[in-house]
Design brief:
With about 290 residues, this protein is of the alpha/beta class. Helix content is about 35%, strand content about 20%. The strands form five sheets. The chain has a seven-stranded parallel β-sheet, sandwiched between helices. Strand 1, helix 1 and strand 2 form a beta-alpha-beta unit. Helix 1 crosses helix 7, helix 4 runs parallel beside helix 5 and helix 6 crosses helix 8.
């Protein structure tokens, strides 16, 4: 089986590539600016704004499964239209698609969101993700749309880097006390996405951890995990800024979790302070299964 990972050089994409190759799948991956460093992977440059480029890639790789983990943030041409072009190409190729979406498709007005909830975005990024979701589900009814939340792990995420910089005083800014999400570990998320890709699941899935945390409380957990002084982390309220997006958005992933062997841990579990993130994953991690 051939797995194609769109956005394979990104944070989530890198972990998807690692787990796919470790499972013995023939793996191809795309990059926008520079390829990843994983061996035994066929790396392909890709501009998702170019439909002909996508079609040529699909014809060359002939994947069985496509996982679209790319993101252009609020760039509509990439995040919305690019994802739609990938879905069109997957439909023409006749291959399975798992599309990674975001809790940003919700406004936060209802706080708690399960898989049956309809998108009501209030930010350009959320609107682009919601448009992509709609198109994917129309073009490929058997596809999986997997919404996730704040992705962290092993000190490599943007939020973890920000915590380190704030704690060391090398960066200005603050961590919001009113901006709540349900963080997920990148290893757990990648394992769940690959499990969904190899299953007969379809429709919307939610893949987030069970712990709802504001950015500052999450920062404290990260600081303790990395042996940093959490008292150096400044606080602020997102409601006092002009940043778009919902404040309190909690994905309810219980229905999806009940269908998976992969266990999505909460941030309090994987940031328990017992090990420093620099130690890296233990041999048992990377395929978090419930027996």
């Amino acid at each position: 089986m051939t797995v194609l990972i769109i956005g394979g050089s990104g944070f989530l994409g890198t972990e998807l590539v690692r787990q796919s190759t470790a499972a013995g799948h023939e793996t191809a991956a795309t990059f926008a600016s520079r390829p990843g460093r994983a061996p035994d992977v066929a790396w392909h440059p890709l501009d998702v704004r170019d439909p002909a480029h996508i079609a040529r890639l699909m014809a060359e790789v002939t994947p069985s499964v496509v996982l679209n983990a790319s993101s252009g943030n609020a760039d509509w041409a990439v995040t919305a239209e690019g994802a739609i072009r990938v879905a069109l190409a997957a439909a023409e190729q006749g291959c399975r698609l798992v599309h990674v979406s975001s809790d940003a498709v919700f406004s936060g007005a209802d706080v708690h969101y399960d898989e049956s909830c309809l998108p009501d975005p209030v930010s350009p990024y959320g609107a682009a993700k919601a448009a992509a979701e709609t198109a994917v589900r129309l073009l490929l009814p058997d596809a999986v749309v997997a919404r996730t939340s704040l992705i962290i792990g092993h000190g490599r995420s943007a939020h973890e880097r920000m915590v380190r910089d704030l704690a060391s005083g090398t960066r200005e800014g603050a961590l919001f006390t009113d901006n709540i999400r349900c963080p997920v570990h990148v290893e757990d998320l990648a394992a769940a996405l690959l499990e969904l890709a190899l299953s007969d699941a379809s429709g919307v899935s939610h893949l987030s951890g069970p712990d709802a945390l504001n950015r500052h409380d999450l920062g404290i957990l990260i600081a303790h995990h990395e042996g940093l002084d959490a008292t150096h982390l400044p606080t602020a309220k997102r409601a006092d800024t002009t940043l778009p997006g919902g404040l309190d958005i909690r994905l309810d992933s219980r229905a999806t979790q009940n269908r998976l062997r992969t266990r999505l841990r909460g941030a309090r579990e994987f940031l328990d302070g017992g090990r420093r993130a620099a130690d890296g994953p233990s041999p048992a991690r990377g395929s978090r299964h419930v027996e």
